[in-house]
Design brief:
By secondary structure, the chain is of the alpha+beta class. The protein has a single domain (4-88), classed as 2-Layer Sandwich (Histidine-containing Protein, Chain: A). The chain is built from three helices and four strands, in the order βαββαβα. A four-stranded antiparallel sheet has the order 1-4-2-3, covered by helices on one side. A hairpin with a 2-residue loop joins strand 2 (34-39) and strand 3 (42-45). The longest helix is centred in the last third of the chain and has 13 residues, at 72-84. The protein is globular and about 35 Å long. The chain starts with a strand and ends in a 6-residue tail after the last helix.
């Protein structure tokens, strides 16, 4: 296993709303790694759009991202890229 961890900030204006959460979940599903997002005491599976939305993460929210699995490095790179690109918004 090759775990990776990072703290990423949501930069898009609308935060982690339905479209952004769907984009993130679809990205994560391309990998076998387990991806967990943590906000405060909440930990959610990044493959679940519903759980991602339940985080209520708005613009400026910092989320801890934990990725564990054989393709963790590639998964983390894809997730960072998505956050940096503001989920393709604004």
């Amino acid at each position: 296993m090759n775990p990776a961890e990072a703290t990423l900030e949501i930069k898009n204006r609308l935060g982690l709303h339905l479209r952004a959460a769907s984009t993130l979940a679809d990205t994560v599903k391309r990998f076998t790694a387990t991806v967990t997002l943590i906000s405060g005491r909440q930990e959610v599976n990044a493959r679940s759009v519903t759980q991602l939305i339940m985080l209520g993460a708005g613009q400026g929210t910092k989320l801890k991202v934990k990725v564990d699995g054989p393709d963790a490095t590639a998964a983390m790179a894809a997730i960072k890229s998505l956050f940096d690109a503001r989920f393709g918004e604004d």
